[in-house]
């Protein structure tokens, strides 16, 4: 990723946290547990994250996709969204 010394870019949202909730996709509503693999900027200069998530905890299947930062929430270990499995 390029940088500009005169106008430094702000870091991605909470780049130290890797575990997150994916709130939804174009076809389905979450939340699902996920793991952020990397951050990047799109052409509109918004943050996107490459995430691996588990859409159905009853199946042995994971999905990897890019999501806008607004579709992700940091994992709060004290709270689990309604209808989801506690993975602690």
Description:
- 0% of the residues lie in helices and 40% in strands.
- The mean pLDDT is 78.
- The protein has strands at 19-24, 29-41, 47-53, 63-68, 72-74.
- The protein has a 5-stranded antiparallel β-sheet with strand order 4-3-2-1-5, with no helix packed on it.
- It is globular and about 40 Å long.
- With 88 residues, it is mostly beta strands.
- The chain is built from no helices and 5 strands.
What is the helix content? Answer: under 10%
Largest sheet features: 5 strands, antiparallel
Principal-axes geometry comes out as globular
**How much is the average pLDDT?**
78
Distance between the termini: 34 Å
Number of distinct helices: 0
* Multimerization status: single chain
Give unreliable regions as ranges: none
Radius of gyration: 14 Å
SSE layout and pairings?
Blueprint: E1 19-24, E2 29-41, E3 47-53, E4 63-68, E5 72-74
Antiparallel strand pairs: 1-2, 1-5, 2-3, 3-4
Quick structural summary:
With 88 residues, this protein is mainly beta. It has no helices and five strands. The protein starts with 18 loop residues before the first strand and ends in a 14-residue tail after the last strand.
